[in-house]
Amino acid sequence: MATAAKDGDHTASSESSSTERERINLKPKITLINGVTVIVGSIIGSGIFVSPKGVLEGAGSVGLSLIIWTLCGIFSMIGAYCYAELGTLIHKSGADYAYIFEAFGPFLAFLRLWVECMIIRPCSQAIVALTFAYYVMEPVFPGCEQPSSAVRLLAAVCILILTFVNCMDVKWATRVQDVFTYAKVLALILIIITGFVQLGRGYYEHFLDPFVNTTTDVGSASLAFYSGLFAYNGWNYLNCVTEELKDPNKNLPRAIFISCILVMVVYVLANIAYFTTVTPLEILTSPAVAVTFSQRLYGIMWWVMPVFVSLSTFGGVNGILFTTARLFFVGSREGHMPLILSSVQMHRFTPAPAVVFMALVSLLYLVSTDMYALINYVGFVNWLSIGLSVVALLYFRYERPNAERPIKVSLFWPIIYIICSIFLVVVPLYASPVETGFGCLIIASGIPVYLIFVKWENKPQSVQSKIDSMTVFFQKLMLVVPEEKKNE
């Protein structure tokens, strides 16, 4: 009997061990290098190659524009520093959505999720995919207008390929991110080295009097700062996938700091390189500064720059898809999105339904001509949400004073960041009141959605049974099941 009991215990232990090994959830597969490439690949899109004119236009001079690029990098590092504490305190994916949810409850978190997942991220992905398609076709149609339908079709193919990759394996997605991030950094290093060669050859006339034509209008300088910060947008994307990061207490802050410093240095040096060859006036009027730069200096090899831009944007599409799918996943897990979106593929351990849903919404925006306007309408929401997240840091200091904090920032930094965030939310009200008003209406449209689909729990049985039937249908179709808790 004792032997039988021991055998039974051994069998139960084996079964328990097997169950633990086969538990279906998202696995921590993201390394430090993967984390760096997720952030760098998400920040560096097409803007620094195509049109860094927003900062120069507002600053008015070469010197002030370079100072603003540097200040924007420092400001982003302060925000990243605060997010390093938040990410190591709250080990949840979802970034600001998760932090706002923890601090201020489900309603504000849902409104953030509503705008981010239904407009900002899908629109951004569609725009970056269109930019990819445009630059892939640029060597084929040099100086000619490209067929719109062909550009949109190629953009759709880009999204579908990356959807397949992200559904199949997390490692595949991170490898794509690694390779294409290396490509875009290599392109910028090529531009920077060329710029230093130009300086050595004596092409530095724009730096002899760098502050000529500097704006004296505070509003213009503010808009320049605003444009620069948009170029750094994406530094918080790794916080969207915290649960899949290996040793997040160490790797999250390391990845954030390495990425922000790298991007700031590259951005400033790339702009210096541009000014050695392209005049400020040409930067303001050129549709693609990096291409103009390459056409003047690389001769018959000028086409390498459109290729590098297309590689950069391809990686950007992957980064947006990879991180946003996790945002859908976490929102679904909290009951803010359909249950199917928090399901995991049984054999691949990927959030396949969330990835597919993100792709479908992005494809819908590809046929729209209003996505640029939508992005402009809700752009201020980004700073409002990040500012609220940093306010949450102060809230957690008060409510959870004894919580373990591997990273603990000086309160001086979040206070400075909150003050600047208030400024960044107020600027659009002054500069673009009509667009900001439409943005507020878009945010408000999430209120009835929240009340009907989230707050109203006792729905009629007929409605609930149809929702359940659809969930089961899609689970069977995609071979997905609800995530199993890691601490069970």
The average pLDDT is 84
**Helix/strand-derived class?**
mainly alpha
Provide the gyration radius in Å.
24 Å
Q: What ranges have pLDDT less than 50 throughout 5 or more consecutive residues?
A: 1-20
**Number of extended strands:** 2
Q: Major sheet, described briefly?
A: 2 strands, antiparallel
Identify the strand order in the major beta sheet: 1-2
Distance between the termini: 31 Å
The SSE string, one letter per element, is: HHHHHHHHHHHHHHEHHHHHHE
Please give the count of helices: 20
Helix content: over 70%
Can you describe this structure?
The two termini are about 30 Å apart. The protein has a two-stranded antiparallel sheet. Helices cover about 75% and strands about 0% of the residues. Helix 16 runs antiparallel to helix 17. The model is unreliable at about 1-20 (pLDDT under 50). It has about 500 residues and is mainly alpha-helical. It is globular, with a radius of gyration of 24 Å. The chain has helices at about 1-20, 30-45, 45-50, 55-60, 60-90, 95-105, 105-135, 150-170, 170-200, 220-230, 250-275, 280-285, 290-295, 305-335, 350-365, 370-400, 410-430, 435-445, 445-455, 460-480; strands at about 345, 480.
